[in-house]
Specification:
Blueprint (H helix, E strand, L loop, with lengths): L4 H27 L6 E6 L4 H17 L4 E6 L4 H14 L10 E4 L3 E5 L3 H8 L1 H4 L5 E5 L8 E5 L6 E4 L4 H11 L14 H18 L2 H16 L4 H33 L2 H24 L14 H10 L2 H14 L1 H18 L2 H25 L3 H36 L2
Parallel strand pairs: 1-2, 4-5
Antiparallel strand pairs: 1-3, 3-4, 5-6, 6-7
Helix pairs in contact: 2-4, 7-13, 7-14, 8-9, 8-15, 9-12, 9-13, 9-14, 10-13, 10-15, 11-12, 13-14, 13-15
């Protein structure tokens, strides 16, 4: 059988091409680097329950899903990690109410916020499933007790909440069916849920917390004493400001200490609930004390501290006024500390660490505003006497209203915030 030489030549060159090209393509494929998947975990080293979850659940799962480049970043003890965490949350556009005490960023696509059920993480980390979304965040912050729900958001449209057993695919399917109808979601961190609800609460609770008969009485008695020893109005004003600044700084440091302790505990939501019940109990005690004066438990300056306060008051110098303010800040904490504890625990649960510090600065300013008003109103000895008489006649009613406000604040936090 005769075969055309042109056909033979064509077959020869095709065979030669495949012989040469096939090994080269194999070599090229082998030399091509595999995609390197990365995960950055921001956590609290001091949180024992978190550590167990991280090492027993999260880390093995990430490794099993071929994510071996894992960075561990303690954002509580390492300042640089805190800054990086805040900047990362801002760049992603994560609203504050979806920021957890554990945040795991996988590539530039997935955020695992909190203690997420294993099956939900496996679904999101599966490469084939990731083709169904551009980026996504799943949130479940409860570490203790029964977990009922989780939240999920694909950075567009509304944040959705599902029962904890609902498959993530239900949200994915809903999102893809409706995403064309969504307006682009841009969360302004200065106007998100946390700011809009927390900021008014901070202002109001700080002011009402500052309406404190204990601190009022000391300030008015101090001003009256300064008039008695013939201090000038300017000197009285400067001494009063020194006293108020000392109270402000003392309360601020107490708040920072509480905030740090709650963050280290790793259970901010649990602590927020405890703080809410504490303020309710203290409010009930104040209310009972109004109707039953002989009730043995009273929220007031400890009796043993009164001689010490009088000692520093009679010195009447600026350093003495500052020390007096510090002592009053410490000693009046049993009177009004319930509201403060409830607010600080709420900040730990609902705000980032540095945003929480900012709220504390505002809260404590509102706390001393009533004292500033009294100082400005005490322009002369006669006005001071009138205000002292008013404080003495109104102190019981103030305690009643303080108790009612405590109860309402605690219930409000339990119902609307935690």
């Amino acid at each position: 059988m005769f075969i055309n030489r042109k056909i033979l030549k064509t077959v020869f060159f095709l065979a030669l091409f495949f012989i040469i090209a096939t090994p080269l393509s194999v070599i090229a494929h082998e030399d091509q680097p595999e995609e390197n998947h990365q995960a950055s975990i921001y956590y609290n080293e001091a949180c024992g329950g978190c550590t167990i979850y991280l090492h027993d659940v999260l880390e093995p799962l990430l490794v099993n899903m071929e994510i071996e480049d894992i960075s561990w970043k303690d954002y509580v003890n390492v300042k640089e990690n805190r800054t990086e965490y805040n900047e990362l949350s801002k760049s992603w556009g994560v609203p504050f109410d979806l920021q957890s005490h554990i945040m795991t960023y996988v590539d530039n696509k997935i955020i695992l916020a909190g203690h997420i059920p294993k099956e939900h993480m496996e679904f999101l980390l599966e490469v084939e499933n990731q083709k169904q979304f551009e980026k996504i965040l799943i949130f479940q912050d409860i570490m203790h007790g029964e977990v009922k729900n989780y939240k999920i958001w694909a950075f567009n449209g509304p944040i959705k909440e599902y029962s904890i057993d609902t498959p993530v695919s239900e949200y994915i399917n809903w999102f893809n069916d409706n995403k064309d109808s969504f307006e682009e979601s841009k969360f302004d961190l200065s106007a998100d849920w946390s700011f809009r609800k927390l900021f008014p609460l901070i202002l109001v609770s700080g002011f009402f917390d500052g309406i404190n008969p204990c601190a009022f009485a000391v300030l008015l008695f101090f001003i009256a004493f300064l008039f008695t020893i013939r201090r000038t109005k300017a000197r009285i004003f400067i001494t009063g400001i020194t006293y108020i600044v000392a109270i402000y700084l003392t309360y601020l440091l107490i708040g920072i200490g509480l905030l740090q302790a709650i963050v280290i505990s790793g259970a901010p939501h649990l602590m927020a609930k405890i703080g809410s019940w504490l303020v309710i109990i203290l409010g009930v005690i104040n209310t009972i004390g109004y109707f039953f004066p002989r009730f043995p438990i009273k929220l007031k300056i400890p009796q043993f501290s009164k001689n010490t306060l009088e000692k520093w008051m009679h010195k009447a110098t600026l350093p003495a006024a500052f020390i007096l303010g510090v002592l009053v800040g410490l000693c009046t904490f049993p009177c009004s500390g319930g509201i403060y504890v409830a607010v600080v625990t709420l900040l730990a649960a609902k705000a980032t660490y540095f945003r929480g510090l900012g709220y504390l600065l505002i809260y404590n300013f509102m706390f001393v505003v009533p004292l500033l008003i009294i100082l400005l109103g005490s322009a002369n000895k006669y006005a001071t006497e009138k205000m002292t008489n008013w404080e003495q006649s109104s102190s019981k009613r103030m305690r009643l209203w303080s108790g009612i406000i405590m109860i309402l604040l605690g219930l409000g936090i339990l119902i609307f915030f935690v």
